[in-house]
Design brief:
This protein has a single domain, classed as MetI-like fold. The chain is about 75% helix and about 0% strand. The longest helix has about 45 residues. The mean pLDDT is about 90.
């Protein structure tokens, strides 16, 4: 009896440990995520209902901060720049990433070397990338203008970061350059997973390169495309502060002012944390809605077929 009871207790303890073990493994990550993501986010929503300069006592103002944001034309201009930035950066990252993935698929030598140098910019911080390209774009001693002068293309020389018509495109290029290698890796994995039998069968049926691309490659990469576009869009919407601030600071004449740089200025230059928090909540809501619509629209056909 004692042996059976002891075995039963041991078995129950083992079952309890097996149940607790997965939760214990994820607990540190959940705690860190809660402390540094969930809690600040909830506090941001809370602060958005107060007038607060970060030092004095908080004063409850209800939805006044949101009302002030909706009549702030500078914020909506910055938001327009943000979505303009996000659109072109998303297209650029995915097009360049896909082209690089196709090139890497066709390489017959030094694949590892070329994949490494293509992916390397991803490992750089935005600050490093911004400072590097700010030096390259420098109108006086920058490599780009000096190279254009060397090859006789003087008509293309310009102030890449000082011209209001060009500055935002220069910043977007740096963002695309940094992340293209990351998207290349995802597309490369998707391309390698497509069975070669599909292409061989299509060739037998007389399909050309264009037909194979749109009827085999794109459908087979649908989930990878959705993931790449979603990551590119959300990244461009909520992670563009560093690169813009380092390279242009929102100028010239506000031409590169995006929502995050404007939110930062309201919080830490104008000391209006309540209004800045309201802007952040609105930006988060728009990003969430845009992402949900994007996922639904891009997976609708796939869900319908299944």
């Amino acid at each position: 009896m004692l042996t059976k009871k002891s075995n039963s207790v041991t078995l129950n303890n083992k079952r309890l440990k097996d149940k607790i073990f997965p939760y214990a493994m994820v607990a540190p990550s959940v705690i860190i995520f809660t402390l540094f993501a969930v809690y600040p986010f909830l506090m941001g929503i809370y602060i958005s209902f107060f007038r607060w300069d970060g030092l004095s006592a908080m004063q409850y103002v209800g939805t006044q901060n949101y009302s002030n944001v909706f009549i702030d034309s500078d914020y909506w201009t910055a938001l327009k720049h943000t979505f303009f930035y996000a659109f072109f950066v998303t297209v650029g990252k995915n097009v360049l990433g896909f082209i690089l993935a196709k090139l890497m698929m066709d390489l017959v030598f030094a694949k590892g070397f070329f994949r490494t140098i293509t992916y390397m910019p991803v490992t750089f911080s935005y600050v490093v990338c911004g400072m590097l390209w700010a030096w390259i774009f420098n109108p006086t001693f920058g490599l780009l203008n000096n190279f254009l002068s060397l090859v006789g293309a003087d008509s293309l020389i310009m102030g890449w970061l000082s011209d209001p018509k060009v500055a935002i495109y220069s910043v977007m290029w740096v963002d695309i350059w940094r992340w293209a290698g990351f998207h290349m890796v995802l597309y490369l994995a998707g391309l390698q997973a497509i069975p070669k039998d599909y292409y061989e069968a299509a060739e037998i049926d007389g399909a050309g390169p264009v037909s194979k691309f749109f009827k085999i490659t794109i459908p087979q990469l649908n989930s990878v495309i959705v993931l790449n576009i979603l990551m590119a869009v959300t990244g461009a919407l909520v992670s563009n502060y560093d690169i813009v601030n380092v390279m242009t600071g929102g100028g010239p004449f506000g031409s590169t002012e995006v929502a995050l740089t404007y939110i930062y200025r309201n919080a830490f230059e104008f000391y209006n944390l309540g209004k800045a928090s309201a802007m952040s909540v609105i930006l988060f809501g728009l990003t969430l809605i845009f992402g949900a619509i994007q996922i639904f629209s891009m997976t609708r056909d796939e869900n319908y077929d299944s």
